[in-house]
Design goal:
This protein is α+β, with helices and mostly antiparallel strands. The chain contains 6 helices and 8 strands; from the N terminus they run ααααββββββββαα. The protein has helices spanning about 1-20, 35-50, 55-90, 90-105, 255-275, 280-295, and strands at about 145, 150-155, 155-165, 175, 180-185, 195, 205-210, 215-220. Strand 1 (about 145) and strand 2 form a beta hairpin.
């Protein structure tokens, strides 16, 4: 009988231990105060368990935070690689996603429609600054990575990616695209982006979509498709357009006139980077040399090319 009672006592202890693990946790996450929610959760764990009595509690918590952050870092790198790939493909992937959103979501509104999770500082892509002119080197998509959003570009289009809280619905997004102005954010909150664009866009060919309920993707079609944008909206740092790297493989898709212009732009950019004369400057020099050869009687020692 003593043995049976011991078993019964052990079963009761196990039952109580199991019940003690099922403590309800009631708290609501306020996206504007994530640390407050985290503190509430830790206080609950400290109150209901002996976890905080262990010597390794700080090390364990730090390790957990580090693991979550490393996963976030990996997801962010994957997102940026996909965004850069979409840009190199001429925005085809973005247009396909926009078409899908237009068909599947009644809340989709092209060009007349429409916070945020801030990207950790160590997640931002390294941005070098030219000490001479204060310009930033473009990211891999020929745009710039800002604190709350990033943008990339081709000669024809600009693609913007804005992270939002996971689970965001399209009806919570406010996006307004005008010819020379962009305003986007979450309803009831200050806009994430609100400013005049670097150049005008074709409003009817501009779209926005919600990607996986965690980021807003905006496609802007440039009005002037022969110029690289130096910034997205006024007030942003400017990028050094001489360091933009267009996809050479895409030149074959352009008409002869456009291809000739693009090749000339690329040549001039390389010449400027090396401190050499551009194609226009070389042409002027050739004209001057020819004129000097035809008129040897004239003194050209002080001649300058304007």
């Amino acid at each position: 009988m003593a043995i049976l009672s011991d078993y019964e006592e052990d079963d009761q202890k196990q039952t109580k231990a199991t019940e003690s693990l099922k403590k309800p946790f009631n708290a609501v996450l306020d996206s504007s105060d994530p640390l407050g929610f985290l503190q509430t959760a830790l206080e609950f764990v400290a109150r209901e368990t002996d976890f905080f009595k262990t010597d390794s509690v700080i090390k364990d918590v730090n390790g957990l935070v580090r693991t979550v952050k490393e996963k976030l870092d990996a997801d962010e790198r994957t997102r940026k690689e996909k965004a850069a790939s979409a840009a190199s493909n001429g925005g085809a992937d973005v247009r396909a996603d926009n078409k899908r959103i237009k068909e599947d979501s009644s809340s989709y509104r092209p060009a007349q429609s429409g916070s945020s999770i801030k990207e950790p500082e160590d997640q931002k892509m390294e941005e070098s600054t030219d000490d001479k002119n204060g310009l930033r080197a473009p990211n891999k998509g020929n745009g710039l990575d800002m604190e709350n959003y990033s943008w990339i570009q081709t000669l024809q289009e600009v693609t913007i990616n804005i992270p939002v809280p996971s689970g965001t619905k399209s009806r919570f997004i406010a996006c307004e695209i005008k010819k020379n102005h962009l305003k986007v954010g979450l309803k009831g909150q200050p806009p994430i982006l609100d400013g005049d664009l670097y150049k005008s866009v074709k409003v009817d060919d501009c779209f926005w979509s919600l990607e996986d309920q965690k980021s807003i993707s905006i496609l802007l079609t440039k009005q002037d498709q022969m110029e690289w944008w130096k910034f997205l909206v006024k007030g942003e740092p400017e990028i050094d357009t001489q360091k933009v790297e267009p996809e050479n493989s895409k030149l074959a898709d352009l008409d002869p006139e456009t291809r000739s212009t693009v090749e000339k732009m690329m040549f001039d950019q390389r010449q400027k980077q090396m401190g050499l004369p551009t194609s226009d400057e070389m042409q002027k020099q050739d004209i001057l040399k020819k004129f000097m050869a035809e008129h040897p009687e004239m003194d050209f020692s002080r001649a300058k090319i304007n």
